[in-house]
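Box 3.1 — From sequence to structure: Glucokinase
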Amino acid sequence: MGARTLTHGLHMQQIAIGIDLGGTQVRAALVDEQGRILARAAEPTDALAGPDRVLAQICGLTDGLLAASNPASVVGVGVSAPGPLDTVAGVASNIPTLSGFVDFPLKAELQKRFPFSVDLENDAIAAAIGEWQFGAGKGLDNLVYVTVSTGIGGGVVSDGRVVRGRKGMAAHVGHMSVVPNGELCPCGNRGCFEAYGSGTAFARRAQMRAMESSGTTIGSDGGAIDSRSVFAAARDGDRLANQLIDEEAEILGRGFTSLIHIFSPDIIVMGGGLSHEFDRLQPGIQAYITQWAMPAFKDVGVMLAALDQNSGLVGAAALAFLSGKVPAIDQL
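Predicted structure (token representation):
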């Protein structure tokens, strides 16, 4: 996707550059102070080529956007990347989806390449910031953001501040244990929330159950059994598909209830790939919370991420705005 040239007064306003570095795509955007994406560009991540190539992709996308748009004032660059990241030191500890990003000084290397200040954030925390500043959590002081996709990640805003913790690595919510000695998680532990509630776990459960069931249309056309095909079968009335979805909603409800008890948020914000089926999942999630949360917490609602796939991209840009304003630094 090429850069889209702006048509409305970009030269008169401050903008931030948001970068979302993922194992599949590198995305860049110019974002204004209201969280609006004014121009964007993306390309597939050259994930096996090593850090120099990936950083060249980031710079190439950014240069293209700036050349096409020619903004007068750039406050900084915010970068969202998968963890674990030591954002205090600016180091990518070990990004499993990107070759060579082991103890890699990502912030320092990016700072060498940009004339603007660079801020680095874990992708799920960046998404939480995006939803807090410009999305479903705008105006709230307390929220938990959970992305349910290939894995499960999270970010927390508490008392109007982003919870970062030691090394900036707080809110790895997918790796709280929900089943003793349970399924093996990609992190190496057993029984993690991610091992049961992620889109990957949901699809794996569907594959196993479909093989054991003769009365389901899941996989009957010979196609891949994934989250999308299960929800499609459910819409056609498939009993097993609807049962699997109800179980997924219960698993998510169990994890969300624990997070509600720990952080006491105003809302839980759900993003990620499975959130595209939010309308089907939300009643079951909310019903679990209503049944099992302590009385004082039963009214906490689960909401869909308002920025969809752009939560992290906009949140990364928000980092640059917040860092560039002295009164707002304390918010972070």
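Summary of the box: Confidence is low (pLDDT under 50) at residues 1-10, 326-332.
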